[in-house]
Amino acid sequence: MKKHIITALVENQPGVLARVxxxxxxxxxxIETLNVGPTNDPTVSRMTMQVPGDNRVLEQVTRxxxxxxxxxxxxxxxxxxxxxxxxLLVKLAATHAQHAAIAALTERFGxxxxxxxxxxxxxxxxxxxxxxxxxxxxxxxxxMLDISRSGxxxxxxxxxx
Amino acid sequence: MRTGADIVIxxxxxxxxxxxxxxxxxxxxxxxxxxxxxxxEFFLARHEQGAAHMADGYARATGQAGVCLVTSGPGATNTVxxxxxxxxxxxxxxxxxxxxxxxxxxxxxxQEADTVGITRAVTKHNYLVKRVEDLPRIMVExxxxxxxGKPGPVLVDVPKDIQQTACDTPFxxxxxxxxxxxxxxxxxxxxxRLARAVAAARRxxxxxxxxxxxxxxxxxxxxxxxxxxxxxxxxxxxxxxxPGSAPLALGMIGMHGTVAANRAASACDLVVxxxxxxxxxxxxxxxxxxxxALKGHIDIDPSAIGKSVPVDFPVVGHVKIALRKLLEAVxxxxxxxxxxxxxxxxxxxxxxxxxxxxxxxxxxxIEQIAAVTRGDALIVTDVGQHQMWAAHFYPYSKPxxxxxxxxxxxxxxxxxxxxxxxxARRDQPVVLIxxxxxxxxxxxxxxxxxEHDLPIVVVILxxxxxxxxxxxxxxxxxxxxxxxxxxxxxxxxxxxIPATIRAAGPYRPDFVKLAEAHGALGMRVTRQDxxxxxxxxxxxxxxxxxxECLVRAEENVFPIVPPGKALNELLxxxx
Lengths: 161, 575
Ligand SMILES: Cc1ncc(C[n+]2csc(CCOP(=O)(O)OP(=O)(O)O)c2C)c(N)n1
Ligand SMILES: [Mg+2]
Hints:
The structure holds two protein chains of two kinds. Chain A has two domains: about 5-80, 2-Layer Sandwich (Alpha-Beta Plaits), CATH 3.30.70.260; about 85-155, 2-Layer Sandwich (Alpha-Beta Plaits). Chain A is about 30% helix and about 40% strand. Chain A is built from four helices and nine strands. Chain A has helices at about 15-25, 55-65, 95-110, 130-140; strands spanning about 5-10, 35-40, 45-50, 70-75, 80-95, 110-115, 120-125, 145-150, 155. By secondary structure, chain B is of the alpha/beta class. Chain B has three domains: about 1-165, Thiamin diphosphate (ThDP)-binding fold, Pyr/PP domains (Rossmann fold); about 190-350, Rossmann fold (3-Layer(aba) Sandwich); about 360-550, Rossmann fold, CATH 3.40.50.970. In chain B, the strands form three sheets. In chain B, strands 2-1-3-4-6-5 form a six-stranded parallel sheet, sandwiched between helices. In chain B, α3 runs parallel beside α5, α3 crosses α18 (about 415-425) and α12 (about 260-265) runs antiparallel to α15 (about 335-350). Chain B starts with a helix and ends in a 25-residue tail after the last strand. The interface between A and B is medium-sized, with 20 and 18 residues. Magnesium ion binds near residues 384, 436, 463 and 466 of chain B.
């Protein structure tokens, strides 16, 4: 099943998240990632979601979302030209001897080491989904203590808002 | 000092509300306190579900918002079925609910429920009022959202402290929300494309739905159908949108549709839905629906288009505006062969039943209601076989003359809805056609009709069964009658009803006594020749009347398209 990236501008008000999520989950679809944040207009938030499903189903979901009074605009970016990025934080169990290897791998991917302790390291990487997954795969030799992913955020290309 | 409660009342008055249905409680006392001074007739329902259905009936009869007012917690949760019913059929209901005081919300306070959470999925929109300054705007928006676009229910949850707080914020002139702009004006090119498709079609059919009624577009629809010379099939919700007696009318389509309507849909090369949403009861097995046809669809709701069947000619817009434009654009085309074909189907396979029977049959009762009211009453139904017979055997010629729970299929809708309808249309005879199962779900509301002197006629087609379910068990579950017998005899052993009680005959409750206990007139009819006189008497009684008709128990609704089958695979039964 194709993963769709749906992005919506919504009123920055309580209950809006529940409405959007309820509409999608109430129809039996799974939201794989979800990100909500403010925009340059303080009354408006942007939500970006990754939802697996076939095209017809997701077209239906998008239209239903568009009907919500609190949703100002909604777009399915899946087949639109867009850039999308995700942020990853990982905590690894790392002996002193492993620190250098982890740091090098992180740097190779363009990530950063955020914290190093004697027994653990926290690293951060921002990239598209493939880079994130590749990076996680390469961390396999190390013991992962915790992981946190932001979910995708996306923006359409081109000169229009 | 103007308080939140005053703002609620002012909001109702500004919206033109003259009638209110409800039931009070602790968290809505402040609003009830202000009610007696307002020029609003208040109907004290006996159950909040009843209040919500009354508001819904009022809304369906008028096209204006029907309003109910209830307390927090159990009061609000009791409206859920009513809101869901209104939501499925696009009926403009506004529900004002009390809520525990703001500081208590989330504390499991006495009579607290997360009302906006619970009703989110069954309303078009809902509000929890957080600041009294927002209340004037919310009241304006609630009515605007309920009545525009595709209409639907809106709930406003008002905490008790907000009702009590002083506030002089003025009402806004109108609604201004960037996320709510109903797409009323259809695209001219879409209309052109649809008109060309209609002109090019050799075997076109129009499918008329409830949207034509709620959009007040029956006249426009008829003009288009007649000008284009296109036969019309109707959904259950569309009955009354196009006169059933018109030569082009083929009757209802779908699970209990006519042979002519279902064959026409199966054979056509173009089907244009006008305010109908291709619901599964309409399409039968969806992959086989109108297999040779291109599809057109006019709807105010963009999400309705392409939802269940792919659409070749979509038109998003208000159905009245769209039909006016379409009337200009369509051309009359003569299709003598197609019209002859559908007329033949219609003539050869009329809806019928065992007319030679000496028993009292439910279809006969409906025909008698039609005869006695000259087809001019407002008919309200409950849900079950009687609902389908009411759809089949009463000739609907006007919009808003057939009021039924189509989308949700809510037993218990009928009586309170009939009260709402009669409250709105006192000048019209209102007949509720109900079943012995459905009527028991909200019988308590009969007292409201008695109190308000609303002379509705309640016809109970008593077949001793939850008949529609029994029919399915007979046809599709090898006649294993499980949990469907309402009479006391012939009960399944798993119900552990003592033999002495099973053996003791009469049906309980005694509907005649029950009617009388509520202050209504009760009558019982057991023979064909008693039906018309009883109905004449009931309609002339000038007060609420219950006419219980003891009809044949195991009569079935035919035709029926078995679940999962195509529309042309319908069973016609014996008749
Ligand atoms: C609230 C509710 N519960 C259950 C059902 C399922 N159901 C559909 S029709 C029906 C039987 C209705 O019985 P009755 O009102 O006597 O009508 P009849 O079919 O016998 O005419 C039932 C139980 C329903 N539609 N609504
Ligand atoms: Mg029955």
